[in-house]
Amino acid sequence: SEGLHQAIEAKEGVEVKKESKTMATITLQNFFRLYAYLSGMTGTALTEAEEFASIYKLDTIVVPTNKKVIRVDNNDVVYRSQEGKFRAIVEEVKERHEKGQPILVGATSVEKSEILSDMLSKEGIKHNVLNAKQHELEAKIVAEAGQLGAVTIATNMAGRGTDIALGEGVKEVGGLYVIGSERHESRRIDNQLRGRSGRQGDPGESKFFVSFEDDLMRIFGGDRMNVIMSQVGMEDDMPISVGILGKTIENAQKKVEASNYDIRKRLVEYDDVLNQQREIIYTLRRKILEAEGDTTKKLLESDLKGDVKLVKEIDVDGLQDLLDQFSLAREESWKMDSLDSLNYPFSGLDKWILKKLLEYVDFLVASEMQDDMKIDNIEERKMYSQIVNLLTEPLLEVGCRELGYDDTVEFFRDIYGKTQVEGVALLKRVILMCYVIHVYAIGLEAMHTLLKYLILESFDKFWMEHLDTMTDLREGISLRNLAQRDPLVEYKNEGFEMFDSMLKKIDEFVLTRLFKVRLVKREEQAAMETKKEEDSRPGKVGKQKTVKRSSNKVGRNDPCPCGSGKKYKKCCYPKYG
């Protein structure tokens, strides 16, 4: 709502609620495609056969009726004005009601059903209204709609699919008479209304009353026809019932159906872009949820020493080649002999993290190493500061010492003194070393839980942001037409770039938090919480300290501390005095 909802809440003086976030989204079409097998049955599918075939790859088969349909479907009756049409419907209902024939009048909206209801009430015709406003009475109203003398008004939203049983003596007076007060945009809805009558070989009749002021007729040239009819002196109550008019109305409906189908098809084409991204994210997320680690094994100090020794000897380039082929979605890529020889059992999540770490090193060296050589102080170089920020200085210090260096500065001095290939390999080795040490410090079970939590949190956080971004892109992409560009192609290209950017944000989010986690004992946690509660207790005031000046006060006539050579009163005193 772009803050509009919150603005109204603030204006009305009610609590301003936090803006809602879209956690997941999918179109109905792509939701149904998730099913391995799809089928359905309806009496009005034939008019939508093309859509079923193109979107769902489903054939539409017509099953013959159980008994021959003997219902009489009359030609449409067209009136000049809506008012004249409604009067004609009331007269028709009045005439058939006197015979005792049950009548079902279909209206396209609640508003029009109430207009017809008022007109019938004025004529003294007892009737029921079925417009989804009387939920408890609807079943009873439908059950009575086929009785002798029953008159029922129903909207499009109510009563469809219900079998209206004919009462005693109804067949003799012609069965259920269905009146359509207006043609719907879709022929399928009209067929549903018509299909209430003449079921299972029963007699019945249907007729549609149309005016040139109806929405469908107005959109497709009804205004022009209305002018022509008024010029020839045709009255509002004078009907036209010609077969060609029925064909014209049907063609108008086909045009609307085609337009609506194009809109739905375009919607699916746009959602297919997001659907591909959705499948990737959901597949990875499912793999992470199902990932299992060997949490029964205990990591001992002796295991750490053995693994540190193996890390010193490991073929980093060979490991990188294996990790390049690794994918969480393909379990066959999880097997890596160089890592499986370690005492610490690397799970799929560990290997995913390690792959991202080594990719980050490649990116960092390629983007920063050349520029860093221009800076004399190693601690001010970007690559140094970013690696320290990633691993934390204490952990990096331990990793460097295990590789035989006195401190991190000496380690980086050695890296900058080597060729780029050798420097990258050494940096990757210390990354692997720090990861193994960090795992041993945290523990197997805690590490597995931590990895799951971090990765899932990042997926959920950035996927929700990505959905909002894609929605914003979708709303404005149609303007690319003005630049003679296909909006769908532009949406695909920019959507891919946004998705790639989201994946990079996920990697960065996980990596920057992974090495900053530390285990805290429950006793320490409890002590910290107790101290926090005591400090926040009301009425508790800490010991006041006297504020002392750290430097001598500068006199007005003394030289200004800024070094300008002027007196303080004529230099910085007006600013700071």
UniProtKB/TrEMBL annotation:
Biased composition (Basic and acidic residues): 526-538
Its membrane topology: Peripheral membrane protein
Boundaries of every SecA family profile domain copy: 1-241
GO biological process: intracellular protein transport; protein import; protein targeting; protein transport by the Sec complex
Domain of life of the native organism: Bacteria
Keyword vocabulary terms for this entry: ATP-binding, Cell membrane, Cytoplasm, Membrane, Metal-binding, Nucleotide-binding, Protein transport, Translocase, Translocation, Transport, Zinc
Residue stretches of biased makeup (Basic residues): 540-551
Pfam families: P-loop_SecA, SEC-C, SecA_DEAD, SecA_SW
Annotated localization: Membrane
Cofactor: Zn(2+)
Positions of the Helicase C-terminal domain: 85-267
InterPro entries (alphabetical): Helicase_C-like, P-loop_NTPase, SEC_C_motif, SecA, SecA_CS, SecA_DEAD, SecA_motor_DEAD, SecA_SF2_C
Single GO term (MF): ATP binding
Region (Disordered): 526-567
CDD domains: SF2_C_secA
Cellular component, GO, one term: cytosol
Family: Belongs to the SecA family.
Name of this protein: Preprotein translocase subunit SecA
Organism field: Candidatus Dojkabacteria bacterium
Organism classification: Bacteria, Candidatus Dojkabacteria
